[in-house]
Predict the structure.
Amino acid sequence: MKHSDLRPPTHVMRLAQMGAMFPTRLSFLRVLLRALAAEKVQVRRPVWDMCAQGYGRAVYTLRFGGHDYALCAFSKPLAAENRTDRVIASEWDAAFVLYDGIPNSAELDRLAHNVPLQEGGRFTARDLCLSRANKSVRLFGTMAHAMQTGAPLPMGDILRTGYLMRTTAVYGNGKFGLADRIDFCDRPGMGGPFMAEMLTVWLIRGFTHDLLEHVGDAELPISVKHALGVGNATGLGMAPFLVSHPGLLHAWMAARETALARVRRADPRPHVLIPLAHRVMQHLLEWNVPDAAAQADIVALRRYWAQFARRLTPNLPDYDHMITTAAHHSPEAEELTIAWLLEAHGDSIDDLAAFMARLPPRGGLPLTCTDMRDMIATHANFALQSDYRSTVDTAQFWYVSQSKLEPRLGQRHTEPGADKESPLDIARRIAAFYADLPKDNTPLWVFLAQNPTHRMAADRIGLLPYAPYAEIQDNLIAATTHPIDMLRCKLSFFGAQKFDPKSKLWTRIALYQGAPVATDIALGAQGGDMWLSTFAP
Amino acid sequence: MVVHLCPMMQTNRSGNEIYATLYKACRGAGLPTAQGDQIAQIVAGAYSNLVLQAILIHLGQPQHPPLVTAAAQNVRIENVHILRDFPIIHDAFQAGLAQVTCTDLIPDALINALCHHFGWSLQVHPDALIFTPSDLADPQGPQRADVDNLLWDQLETWAYETYVPESDTSRLSGAGPGLSDND
């Protein structure tokens, strides 16, 4: 695949485009579920020790890729005034750990003590992921009451909300003593990005169904279980990841763009795409959010898609034409069209998931300062477009608060703390590097030896010829930067749907809404792989 | 300084914990970001309490601008701060130079770890260390290790320098959602 077949980074890596992304069949939770279904993994629940109100502990076990895993859940009462999705929370409705193996009673007691403490606990190499969740008070309580009294379930609310509980953090890769990812990523099924985290959340989803059935003292229909995923409140903490892992970001983007390039060359599949288009329309009708600006975007997308889907015939337009037309409407229309097209061509692209955890090779730095200036102008011109002396282009700064190490965004010119700014001002650093580079053939290594603070910019630039999608091509400290665009990009790779932005700094989402449940997976998910609620069944 | 070898005074930490805290500590000490990142990765792959002890000493040292003199196949660096300037040695060898002389340095566990990682040979002279390239590079990925608690506390003190004190404004509006949040 030539680079020229791929959409250019100057388009794809702009925040406005990244912030319009939709989940696809390359999203991580899709990849996980295909792997679980291929093995017909059986989930068992050897421990269910809950009082009538749903407080206590539970253990779910499964064998996947030749290894045993267990989700251990601990549920406790929580006063409404203490329920918050913020990192600064200190208690939650339920806390979880994904354990490597089957815990014995001593291990379960250790986990019972540490897991509810979350960041305050201490974990071992047997503990893979740590998470916590709060109930959707409006939906959980309403449904429990309906089930207890035999009243009809609120299907409208179920479809609108999409979850019973909301995770507010999912930690992995060595945090607080958890296992390092490198210790288990060679296992079958666990090599993709965030596989342990995705498995944890999927098992939590099953727990939320079981908890409601227990409290409601009745069974949930399978169709309702399908409609209930797991919510998540995603704040700023997720955004810096995309900046601090440029090689990984490139791997994700390159896989997706390569998938698109393959699909653009494929024979059209109207018999799959036309029904999917109507399901997309249904999803757009079900996707409503309180934020006025976000709702306006959804309504605009809904109008576009309604016209587009209505005109589809078995004689489909050229894929390129559909993408270009959508792009003229909006980034959301373009990205939705792409997700829709990818969905129909899994046999051509699903293999690309295997590349999403492979970091690109690193070449050496250019020899001279002139070479480096040329490289910046060629690959990072975006960084030279802002005026870093202006208040507008330097309005914001990223930092970590002393309070529970919560990531935050500050206003540089009105708040203290910019002296401890997190190094996410990549564009500004590249521009400063470019400005200081002499316009001659001074060996670059000599310049960097004498100017050690520019090494970060040099390393970032040096990656770009090999990883063109490694950099977000925007000024991340400008007044116009909206972190939610970064959140949506990463969340779409996770497989999140029903983006419900609460501000420019955080959003609620639903994961696994429409996905197979454990009983489906045990049968190999015979219902098929196209379950994303974007293609609402 | 005493390094405790008693298991009761140590905590088993993940490779990523070691990396993340060390990286922040380097930033907290005012070291450039890239160097802090790379040092943290190297040490997370080859951790020992002696290496951490050496790093803590270096973190507390003042940073003066390096004086780099390149001549023929040799480079001489004065005012070396090893945590900041180790990439110069790597770069010089990548550029084909044969020898890097660093004044104001004495060998310690950190320098030995860097030599092991990059494959450098080291000659110790009374007033300088002389590095030459060899073919024995042995980079390692992050690994769990038992970390001395006192050393870790000192490391976290440096890392703490990167955190911003909370204000009412930042608490209320810096992260997005309000203080309580029910759905």
